[in-house]
Amino acid sequence: MQLRSSPTAAKSIVGNSRDLAGRLNRMKTVKWSPERTQVNSWNEWDPLKHVIVGYATDCHIPPPEPALEAKVPEDSDMRGQWGKRPQDMIDRGNELLDTFAEMLRGRGIRVDRPTPIDFSQPVVTPDFETGSGFGCMPPRDVLLTVGNEILEATMSYRCRWFEYLCYRPLLTRYWEEDRNFRHEAAPKPRLADSDYRPDYLSGNISIETRLEWTAEKYFVTTEEEPLFDAADVLRFGKDLVVQHGFTTNLKGIEWIRRHFPEHRVHATNFPGDPYPIHIDATFTPIRPGLILNNPERRLPDDQRALFTRNDWEIVDAARPAHNSPPPLCYSSTWLSMNVLVLDPKTVCVEKSEVHQAEQLDRLGMEVVEVDLRDAYAFGGGLHCCTADVYREGGIEDYFPIQPDFAEAM
Ligand code: DAV
Fold it and tell me: Does some domain include residue 252?
């Protein structure tokens, strides 16, 4: 086209830029294909097409540090030990993660894997020093996918400060391959002593006291600076639901709110959890209209209206099949409800979690059993060990009625 400075030409330029916007929009909705990287995921249930699955490789039990110590129960077999986890357990963990990845590939889902760094190296910054890193089994903790953006969380444990590096090769590739992809990182936190309450560690704190503290929202992390782990965030289209607890503070939630101005960000807390770390063994959306809630960690009444007023059902999750977590595991038995939804009719459930599988079956879901329990110790369950890259669908408003909800600040 020839440009001339006449009113007609001006009009055609405007026309052209509209065409361009139209083309860009169409590009965004172009059909997904495994050969073409596209980052897009707005919720926890739309059909999954591309996902990252972690590795157990070189996973370490980190040395004590303020935030971690508070999570390790007083009678845990992990107290007092640190260092690389036994190689035979790592191999077994990787075997299960590899099998899981292959199963997903068999269902037509593209699966990428991280690049582990050397976790035996001490983590040293001008503000702190700790003896080792952690691992890269749970990408969900680090990466928050919202639409065409993947955001690296601040993280709140010192041993996890450099964990984002394991995902950089993938994120760099996505950035090169997908012109719409926004690669973002939240401000790295200082994680100085002032980020943690020293009194959280003192003495033999009873479970009763811990429960009182959770109910009062008195957690191991202070409000020194924004802190969040990505696994404290659940995506419901226009709404993001964030757990305030050990790993995410109010400033972290406020940071997320300012970072996603088009979203409505809701702070939640779950009294009943003595160690509130990550929302994904507590509150699990399954499909539009249906959420499983840990019956020991019920969402308080004043925070339920967002869901119930919009006709969403919150049901008690089934009991875990186990009385205790596997050896050297940080997480609770409630990894039973840490499921990965493949689409609104299909869900991956850990193979031994028979009660959870049965409940989801009753709720009309097709259940895909996945053997993962021997990998739990490396950082969690099926939701933890994955991070979304692409789910079909766009941003929807699931909660058009917005009742007063607990404000973050
Ligand atoms: O119940 O121990 C585990 C969540 C891991 N992302 C729990 C929470």
Answer: yes
CA of 247 to the centre of ligand 1 (A): 11
What's the 275 CA to ligand 1 centre distance in angstroms?
A: 9
| Residue identifier of the C-alpha nearest atom 2 of ligand 1 | 331
Which residues are within 8 A (CB) of 151 and not within 5 positions of it... i.e. 6 or more apart?
143, 144, 145, 184, 185, 186, 230, 259
Domain count for the chain: 1
pLDDT score recorded for residue 7: 39
Provide the domain limits for residue 102.
39-391
Residue 244 covered by a domain: yes
Distance in Å, CA 278 to ligand 1 centroid: 6
Q: What is the pTM of this model?
A: 0.91
List pLDDT tens digits, range 143-191. 999 999 999 999 999 999 999 999 999 999 999 999 999 999 999 999 9
Cα gap 121→315, rounded to integer Å: 44
**Cβ pair 49, 38 in contact under 8 A:** no
28 within a domain of the structure (yes/no): no
Catalytic residue numbers? 229, 278, 384
Return the pLDDT at 14.
Answer: 40
CATH of the domain at 288: 3.75.10.10
Averaged pLDDT of the chain: 90
With a CB cutoff of 8 Å and minimum separation 6, the contacts of 328 are: 61, 77, 78, 85, 89, 377
- Has residue 26 been placed in a domain? no
Q: What residues does ligand 1 touch, defined as CB less than 6 Å away?
A: 231, 277-278, 280-281, 331-332, 334, 380, 384
